[in-house]
Amino acid sequence: MSELAELLRRHPGFCAIVENGKPYRKLDFTAANTDLLTRDLSETVDFSDYVFGEMLSENKFNGFGGYGEDRVIYRHRKHFTADTEKPRSIHLGIDIWTDAGTPLYAPLDATVHSFAFNDHYGDYGPTIILSHELAGTTFFTLYGHLSLSSLEGLWEGKNINAGEHFASIGPYPENGDWPPHLHFQIIRDMGNHTGDFPGVCNATDSDYYLDLCPDPEWILRINA
Q1: 203-218: per-residue pLDDT in tens?
Q2: Strand order in 181-187's β-sheet?
Q3: Where are the domains of the chain?
């Protein structure tokens, strides 16, 4: 366990990022979900109907999961397969699948590190990255697939209080053309990245990136 993961594990608790009262159901987007091997989900409306209608039982649950998953769903999206020698399929965050417009709350005190509209099919769409300090350690959280309105009134260095409503889940196609969900990721070191950071990596790079991006469950504690 990394030093950051241990620090997060010891923290008594974080504010909930999503507070809509729905129970959670873990979703599987690997080859173990045999539905994904036979369905064409390249059209976002079909993908959304499958997630919310079937996987989430007519939207009765929030979906969650995906950290470290080797996902087959990316085969429909050139954003992840453009590099034919190193296609990306290992997911580095946790997704929370719920309605577009759902408010999002900061899990702990933060400042805005950066933000951007990553406007490509299959990309993050509107994205916010927050910087946090905990017990003298600085780290970052990334929020992808937001609404465009989430980027209004932001500036780098803006203070965000723990529990503050700072963004909302976006609709497709403005969210990168995905069924509505939040991509939530912890990052130890942003390097030179601003407004963006890899959320999916090639399998050969997974040890490096999974160490750089600890399990978001240390903050979310959905399984607790």
Answers
A1: 999 999 999 999 999 9
A2: 24-26, 62-65, 94-97, 181-187, 137-144, 125-134, 110-118, 159-160
A3: 3-220
Q: pTM for this structure?
A: 0.94
Can you give 179-202 as a three-state secondary structure string? CCEEEEEEECCCCCCCCCCCCEEC
The amino acid at residue 54 is: E
CA distance 165 to 72: 33
CATH, range 3-220: 2.70.70.10
pLDDT tens readout for residues 151-192:
999 999 999 999 999 999 999 999 999 999 999 999 999 999
Q: What is the Cα–Cα distance from 170 to 146, expressed in whole angstroms?
A: 4
Run of H or E including 83: none
Position 164: which residue type? E
